[in-house]
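Hi R.,

Here's the chain you asked about this morning:
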Amino acid sequence: MCFNSQQLSYLRTENEDTFETKPKPRSKKGHPGRRYFMVVALLGILFLGYIAIAYDLKPVRLGSKAIDTLAFSFNLQKPFYVVVIDAGSTGSRALAFSFHESILGGNLILDSELYTETKPGVSAYADKPKDAAKSLIVLLDKVREVIPQPEWQHTPLTMRATAGLRLLPGHKAQEILQECRKLFEDSGFQVSKNSISIMEGTDEGIFSWFTVNFLLERFNTHSPGSTVAALDLGGGSTQVTFSPDAKQEKKLDGHVYSVNIFNHNMSVYTHSYLGMGLMAARKEILTHGMNLENANPKTVIEVRSECINPIVSTKWNYGGLNYLIKGPVNGTHKLVKTQNFAGGEEDRPIVNFSECLKNIEKYVGRIKNKPIGLKDHEIYAFSYYFDRATEVALVDPFAGGIIPVSAFLKQAREACDYPNTDQPFICLDLTFIYILLRDGFGLEPTTKLYLYKKINGHELSWALGAAFNIIQNGL
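And the predicted structure, written out as tokens:
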């Protein structure tokens, strides 16, 4: 998969210009005569290879990809790298991307990536900013293992924090960013004053949308109908992004941006719903909107919820606070026929699904600006959508799969009817996802969701889109 590095200036919206300075990776083009010589030499090698196997009557495909592959294998084209740190609300991930420039067309080609993560996220260190920076050291060490040391000074390193830091008080978020900046400046990688920041939800959504469509090779025609929608469910926020047609665009209330993709302008709708990430929503649904702004991080907050099984008592940490989560005092039970030889019935504690549903519908009902036209698109859903689907065997954890929205409801009902202390939040999480998709985003129960973690071996995340943006526009 390639894009033309000289043409690409995507992800600059009409009213934003995220990056300011051009990174300066080592030049890969070389002298024109040398490039011509390499092409001629490779053509000669391919021709000799063709002669060598012609007697076996085996066809050989001679094309630019074959030439480029040979050039790279003969070490005629050197790789270069971009490192993106995704500082999410529940964990931090490092993605180190390796690219090279095509010998013929000058296109940038994505070769490989390292993906590694650590938990919790930096926002969990709200009162210990130095510890937040220290938590990233293990990620940088992993990155150093895959990037040759001579290339570090030419490799852009950036960190973008998402909803976890957006939800913290401003001064605490800035203290964390400052400590991380100090760490990066001593890392040996290429950094600038803009290398570390809190990313806007708009960028997060568009970067994710670009990643999915780039990996699916959907930018060939640059028409809205050829691209897919991207649903990214994070811990603190969720993003909905798609390219509307002219009719849909008229119905959308703002949040539509003009984005340049491969030298073609496209209208892209993206909306980041802060507080509708899985963990942020879980916290609000469990605590019923309790005011915890001045809560002591050292104390344990006991919470009882209708969305938790009566036998559950589990510890949970989110946003720097510690919770003890329990089911309701007067929990719901039902008689269930046993499967043993003697028959009979057992009294099983269950979640009162109708009551839990009301609580979740009330919370999701806060969404007023809905993504009109989303259901008319092919929809790729990832992050926590994929994770929760795999945990209840809706899709294969390695291959992914396609399911209707209603599958989440079916599994939610089953999960709520079973006392599962190993997955104490699975009933709540699955029910929230279904209501978010149905009520929040207006999807039908029959709407298909394409659930994948990777496409062609590459992670579905906003980081790849961010890496391409850095190559084009700088750190």
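The mean pLDDT is 85.

Let me know if you need anything else.
M.
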